[in-house]
Amino acid sequence: MKTGFHILIIGGGMVGACVAALAASNRHFADLRIAVLEANPPTMPPPEAVDDIDLRVSAISRASERILSEIGAWPLIPRQHVCAYDDMSVWDADGKPRGPGSIHFSASESGEPNLGYIVENRRVLWSIHDCAAFRNRVTLLRGELTGLEFEDDRAAAILSDGRRIEAALIVGSDGSGSLSRKLAGIETRGWDYDQRAFVTHVRTEHPHERTAWQRFLPEGPIAFLPLADGRSSIVWTTTPDHAERLVTEAPEQVGNELARAIDNTLGKVELAGPRGQFPLRLTHAKEYCRERFVLVGDAAHAIHPLAGQGVNLGFLDSAALVEVLAEELEGGLPPVAIGERRVLRRYERWRKSENAVALGLVDGLNKLFGSRADTLGWARRTGLSMLDGSMLAKRFLMGRALGIRGAAPALVRSHR
């Protein structure tokens, strides 16, 4: 069986679904057929209970908020499941929050209403799949990819049930282990970190004050991220052995460890959710595109979680790709030609350089703060204190973290 589309997106996660919804809501794509291939799409909205919070949460930046608003998805996320944070306090293991060896970011210093939001991944995903642009214009195909075929004027996805789905352009958005990337013959650079991320939710003796708290320890950073119901989401980057112990140790013992790790900043800590851990790896595709194929999101780049930039970089990829294709279509490009490599190279040059900066910065921070050298410890504390005293530097860093500085897509820059 053959089925033809102009754009076929492999992977219906947050980023892949966002590409589809952005294209579907753009007037230049009005006559184009758009499809998403996903083996396990969401079938119903997440539970409404305020305290029913999944382990997988993301820090949604201002740029991502604007992109999700553009497709009508952001208003669909129930407000009781969105926690805006106004402040972020970061300090070295030998420093103190808001003391020497620390840096404090405040929305009041950025000219923005907040520094971002902590939201469950499943709620963001459902809002995209449920927005009008996606529901009305995107064909959702359930199935598993097994092969890709490329010709001069089209590409085809081969599914496990024998279906052959043809498209002028195939977008790989199937995660850091991307099968579509491998089938397209695109190699990656990167390495495994000798670290894992331990995640859970906790209740604390003192309120989180709508603040993201992050302390850099020798084994890796620990972050307490504020949740809407008053709890905090924990992301603790540590050694593999320690992460495994944190998953299995007695809850009271783990709570005590978490309290000590955050320097008792929020008082006593009590586990209030399931526990999990996952390995960490840096990955960057050597190429973002080939003829009739392009990568977005984690399929193109996987980043350390310490800065919370993973999905935000993916949403920026989505907006940039749709912007490039829309400009080409507006300039008279035939829809059947949107998968030509000369077109996709514009997107690659734009986003690959931006993502390389983000990956390099976050990787460098992880190595710098993970070093036990005494001279580097002094340099870290001094550098943080100097940055904290420079409003210009802090505004620059906040702008980059919010995704509204640098080479941002037009809809991010012009959003009202």
UniProtKB/TrEMBL annotation:
Cofactor annotation: FAD
Pfam families membership: FAD_binding_3
Keyword vocabulary terms for this entry: FAD, Flavoprotein, Monooxygenase, Oxidoreductase, Ubiquinone
FAD-binding domain sequence ranges: 144-331
Annotated metabolic or biological route of this protein: Cofactor biosynthesis; ubiquinone biosynthesis
Coiled coil start-end: none
InterPro entries (alphabetical): FAD-bd (IPR002938), FAD/NAD-bd_sf (IPR036188), Ubi_Hdrlase_CS (IPR018168), UbiH/COQ6 (IPR010971), UbiH/COQ6_monooxygenase (IPR051205)
Entry annotated with the keyword rRNA-binding: no
KW Ribonucleoprotein (keyword) present: no
Family that this chain belongs to: Belongs to the UbiH/COQ6 family.
Protein name: UbiH/UbiF/VisC/COQ6 family ubiquinone biosynthesis hydroxylase
